[in-house]
Amino acid sequence: KSTIKIIKRLISITVELVKLNNFNTSIALLCAIKIECEIRLNHLWEDIPNKFKRDYKNLRQIMQRQNLPTDDPCIPYLDYHLKQINAIETLVPSTLGHLANFNKSKYIYEIISQIMRYQQTPYNLQPVTQISQLLVKFNIEN
Q1: Residues forming beta bridges with residue 96, ordered by sequence position
Q2: For residue 87, which phi and psi values (nearest 5 degrees)?
Q3: Cα–Cα distance, 114 to 82 (Å, whole number)
Q4: Hey, is 30 helix, strand or coil?
Q5: How far is the C-alpha of 9 from the C-alpha of 21, rounded, in Å?
Q6: CB 76 within 8 A of CB 24
Q7: Chain centroid to CA 115: how far?
Q8: DSSP3 helix / strand / coil % (the chain, rounded to 5)
Q9: What would the pLDDT profile of 81-135 be if each residue is shown by its tens digit?
């Protein structure tokens, strides 16, 4: 029962993270839920309410898109961008004959500038005193 409660909570948190365009943490939580529910403890999935199953399914569909729906601000899923850069570095030649391949640099620039654009617009989040106090008082040793 407590594991079901935790999984429901993680799905709810992930929904809110997607609303904030925090795709990096969203995908990390989705991977944890997938490992826990679909792979490791498959029998738990039967006990999760349909609402949370629908939310999970919708989240997985959103995260599987190549171009995630983003409005500024955003915390992008950096692994996706790093894989794109790696693919360009691996597959696109740096030179064409004796000439530099500026298209390769242009492709990499486009990816990096997209990430930089996300950093330009700050989140307009207000501090929550109760959470701040909880984090300050939190003792990791217990």
Answers
A1: 99
A2: -65, -40
A3: 12
A4: helix
A5: 18
A6: yes
A7: 13
A8: 70, 5, 25
A9: 899 999 999 999 999 999 999 999 999 999 999 888 888 888 888 889 988 888 8
